[in-house]
Amino acid sequence: MPYHHNFEESEDRSTEPPRNKCLACLKANTLTIATVTGVVIGAIVGVVLRNTRDSWSEREIMYIGYMGNIFLRMLKCLIIPLIIASLVSAIASLDLSLSGKIAARAIAYYLTTTFAAVVLGMVLVVAIKPGVGHAQKNQTLEVDSRNITTVDTLLDLIKNMFPPNIIEACIFQYRTKLIPTSDSQTDIFDFKISTEVVQNTNILGLVVAAAAVGIAIAQVGEEAQAIGNFFHGLMAVSMKITTWVIFLSPVGILFLVASEVLEMDDMASVMSSLGLYFATVCLGLLIQGFVVLPFLYFALTRKNPATFVHNMGQAIATAFGTASSSATLPVTIRCLEDNLGVDRRVARFALPIGATINMDGTALYEAVAAIFIAQVRGVPLDIGHLIAISVTATAASIGAAGIPQAGLVTMVMVLDTVGLPAGDVSLILAVDWLLDRFRTAINVMGDAFGAGIVYHRSMKELGLLNTSTSDISSATEATKLNKEKQKNGKRKDKDQDTAVEMSRF
Hints:
- The protein folds into two domains: 33-141 and 206-457, Proton glutamate symport protein (Orthogonal Bundle), CATH 1.10.3860.10; 462-491.
- It is an all-alpha fold.
- It has 21 helices and two strands.
- The protein starts with 20 loop residues before the first helix and ends with a helix.
- Strands 1-2 form a two-stranded antiparallel ribbon.
- It is a multi-pass membrane protein.
- It is found in: Membrane.
- Its main location: membrane.
- It holds the Pfam family SDF.
- Belongs to the dicarboxylate/amino acid:cation symporter (DAACS) (TC 2.A.23) family.
């Protein structure tokens, strides 16, 4: 097998225009329509079951959501092989200078849109003031109230980029733990510093490790051909399994949504106290996902963003149903490659990075939530606090794992910036499960738009690389043919000499 893998589609897509365009459209989007239908039916089933009795036990809810949890576990099982194999095979197949350009474009886009989402959320929450005049009673819900500082959180983010054990990074990650040496100690910076292991995949560390392996394979060249082919094969196998799992998404998402609806508190009472906050976050997500991101896509590619969103429907619906951008990664890759024709090298290089560091919806939500809680508690915020929130929310969203409700953990970091206790997260927990699904859908849309923009901006370099790769392949084939001709010529000369010798006898 040649070292430079051909990622282009080999099948011929030139087909005759269908007679019935409506029927052809339904056939092409059957899975997307089924997934969206699963979300709607799941919500209806949940509401109907809630009205049949006053309360449902935890075990009964577990039974209803069982099939959905199985589907979610299957998706999560594909995260690690997909991230590692896609990054290694993509970087190994690209020229190193081009890899650097694609990475720079992707990271610049992701950081820009994340910061823009934070600023948008802050403008909306300051203008609407959803927390003014809505004092909340203290709730006794369980939240992550560990002792931590913003500096330690940022340092943990960098530390986890370099895991000491790659195998361990698939299961655990480290974080700083501050322990007071005495009951009278109040200054958190004087607490004893220790570390603890949390059972949560260190996605950021795996991304850095996979990128390093891909760069090494590209630099070593011919000697590492077998390793490059292995990761390319692993990616192909993972995508094939993904296609099997995706067919279960309508049923799995139906049961996931139904169980969540059964589990939620009384929606009328929740919306009476948190309705304006909920509407503020949703408005921000709507503007970010359907105004800001499409405008950037159109401005940088001159292509129709509505077509792009339509072709990403399956991934967006899966993101809403699973509330996990990492679990949606296999579906996102498939939609970009099959529906939008994005080069596989770009999609498999940019999307794992985006699923790790690009959290537009989470960043917007954390900025809005922090200022909302400050408004509820009557804490005045000056321009310095707002700038600190914008920077911290951007950093916190990068550190948020792509798992359901991971943003609640990093919310503690943002609240610390405003000087609010971690327990105040409980004020917004009642609607967080639903907002988590909306912001995950926006996170996935941001990743996909980023990959589409990076692909468009890199088409010239990718075309040159394809040309040089085909030239290398042609040269290799020509060399093989010349060697075969030389061998055949020598064989003919030898046969003639043998015939002459035999004629002498």
